[in-house]
Amino acid sequence: MSIVVNIYYTGTGGNARKFAEEMESSGTASKIRKEEGNLRYEYFIPMADRETVLLIDCWKDQEAIDRHHASPMMAKIAELREKYDLHMRVERYAADEGGIPEADRRFMKE
Question: What is the pLDDT of residue 48?
């Protein structure tokens, strides 16, 4: 069962976006994507809140998350969060391994 973690980074003066841009340009995000058990690591900007950046972070299991939290990447993330004075809100979800039910597929266009 994979775990999806949504992290909402919020700051002022465009700092959340600057944080995400530096995570990408420094190669830190790329390194995290290569960590064992990482399935997804992507930043998004909510249309209704330009001072927030959403990170969708998906891991194979809790053990993969624990390894990530013990990795050198966490020190870099903490350093950048502090640099940009960001606050966080976190949501965790267990992925629906069964996929999209057929009843819901009729609302989708592929």
Answer: 95
Written as one letter, the residue type at 42 is: E
The answer to whether residue 1 scores a pLDDT higher than 90 is no
| Strands 87-94, 52-59: pairing kind | unpaired
| Residue 91 token pair | 């949501």
Q: Collapsing DSSP states into helix, strand and coil, what is residue 42? A: strand
Q: Per DSSP, what are the bridge partners of residue 7?
A: 55, 90
Instruction: Check if the beta carbon of residue 9 is closer than 8 Å to that of residue 52.
Output: yes
Q: Identify the three-state secondary structure at position 9.
A: strand
For residue 25, the SS3 value is helix
pLDDT at 59: 98
- Using H for helix, E for strand and C for coil, what is the string for 46-61? CCCCCCEEEEEEEECC
Identify the DSSP state of 105.
H
**Residue with structure tokens 């870099």?**
76
